[in-house]
């Protein structure tokens, strides 16, 4: 299968007063048509900057480099402003944690939802409104006529996120990036929105890059997963393999801290190290119960089998043992 998105050796540095932050440190990522790929990890590990890199929307100060970064075979590193603009909507669309920041408070939902369809000349205003109506109906923002005339603040958080989803689907993107799309919502609404996203992904045949800090979400939604820690992918593979045969102590620790009925959420002790200066060896070693001296040296990538890869000195079955 040819990948839609194919990235290798992606790095993002953010220079600042305290020095240069090495926020993303050489990650590889490939997403095929129609698949659901998740990136999971704790706050600050670089998930959002990865999404922003793919969208060409990094903060101005950030410096991106990559050995390869291609969209359907085209080199994204050489994209002009116009090419990025052409990508947003018909190729890649995105939804974020807080829809209110993405929606314009002074425009009606109707005005905003048709904007990219009209901008990309996919049809006139009437065709755009017809498509918006169909999509709003599909995502459950009804009655459509009334909703189109409303302003974002007149809707609940869950409804606003549904509007964002409909808006992202207007130009039939090949890939939807959903960055923590349900984190700001209550638990019941979270489940509904995730279910909706999964259904729409199948109906529209689009790929989904879902960013989350929740391995439970990964288990329900994804085909493949990349576990990120301190700007690197420490383990990746099919969800079935990574969740049942986790080989990296960080993945295993994330799985152990999932809340259950009898056990409340238990955080992983310790904190993510600051990503400044020379960074050698495994970044998880200061929190890892298996850490040894050699963990301060560069860590090779090892295979568990069938595309399941991890970066650790331990043998694949040692974490579970
Ligand atoms: N605009 C920015 N300027 C400076 N540093 C930034 C900027 N955006 C992100 N960073 C830093 O880059 C690192 C990665 O941030 P990122 O937002 O990608 O993490 P994340 O995994 O998405 O976390 P969260 O789940 O909290 O959003 C963090 O250390 C963060 O402080």
Q: Which features characterize this protein?
A:
2 domains; binds adenosine-5'-triphosphate; eight-stranded mixed β-sheet; 321 residues; five-stranded antiparallel β-sheet; globular; alpha/beta; Rossmann fold
Describe this structure in words.
The protein folds into 2 domains: 3-91 and 173-311, P-loop containing nucleotide triphosphate hydrolases (Rossmann fold); 99-172, no CATH class. The strands form 2 sheets. An 8-stranded mixed sheet has the order 7-8-9-3-10-11-13-12, sandwiched between helices. Strands 1, 2, 4, 5 and 6 form a 5-stranded antiparallel sheet that branches. It is built from 11 helices and 13 strands. The mean pLDDT is 90. Helix content is 32%, strand content 25%. It has helices at 47-55, 81-87, 99-102, 109-119, 125-139, 144-148, 157-169, 187-204, 215-221, 239-244, 249-256, and strands spanning 3-16, 19-32, 36-40, 63-65, 68-71, 74-75, 92-95, 175-179, 207-212, 224-229, 232-238, 301-305, 308-311. It has 321 residues and is of the alpha/beta class. Bound molecules: adenosine-5'-triphosphate.
Using only C-alpha atoms, the radius of gyration works out to: 20 Å
CATH names the topology of the largest domain as Rossmann fold
Strand content: 15-25%
Tally of DSSP β-strands: 13
Strand order of the largest sheet: 7-8-9-3-10-11-13-12
Mean pLDDT: 90
């Amino acid at each position: 299968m040819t990948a839609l998105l194919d990235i290798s050796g992606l790095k993002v540095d953010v220079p600042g007063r305290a020095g240069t932050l090495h926020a993303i440190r050489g990650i590889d990522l490939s997403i095929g048509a129609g698949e659901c790929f998740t990136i999971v990890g704790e706050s600050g590990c670089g998930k959002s900057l990865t999404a922003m890199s793919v969208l060409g929307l990094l903060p101005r100060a950030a410096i991106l480099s990559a050995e390869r970064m291609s969209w359907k075979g085209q080199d994204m590193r050489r994209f002009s402003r116009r090419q990025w603009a052409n990508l947003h909507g018909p190729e890649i669309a995105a939804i974020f944690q807080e829809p209110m920041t993405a929606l314009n408070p002074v425009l009606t939902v109707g005005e905003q939802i048709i904007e990219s369809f009209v901008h990309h000349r996919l049809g006139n205003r009437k065709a755009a409104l017809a498509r918006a109506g169909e999509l709003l109906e599909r995502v459950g923002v009804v009655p459509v006529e009334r909703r189109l005339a409303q302003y974002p603040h007149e809707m609940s958080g869950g409804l606003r996120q549904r509007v964002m989803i409909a808006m992202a689907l207007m130009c039939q993107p090949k890939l939807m990036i959903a960055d923590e799309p349900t984190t700001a919502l209550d638990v019941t609404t979270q489940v509904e929105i995730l279910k909706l996203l999964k259904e729409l992904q199948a109906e529209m045949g689009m790929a989904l890059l879902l960013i989350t800090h929740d391995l439970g979400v990964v288990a329900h939604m994804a085909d493949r997963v990349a576990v990120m820690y301190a700007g690197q992918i420490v383990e990746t593979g099919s969800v079935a393999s990574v969740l049942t045969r986790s080989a990296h102590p960080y993945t295993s620790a994330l799985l152990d801290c999932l809340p259950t009925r009898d056990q409340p959420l238990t955080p992983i002790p310790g904190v993510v190290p600051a990503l400044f200066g020379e960074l050698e060896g495994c970044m998880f070693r200061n929190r890892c119960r298996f850490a040894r001296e050699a963990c301060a040296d560069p860590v090779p990538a090892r295979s568990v089998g069938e595309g399941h890869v991890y970066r650790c000195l331990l043998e694949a079955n040692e974490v579970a043992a």
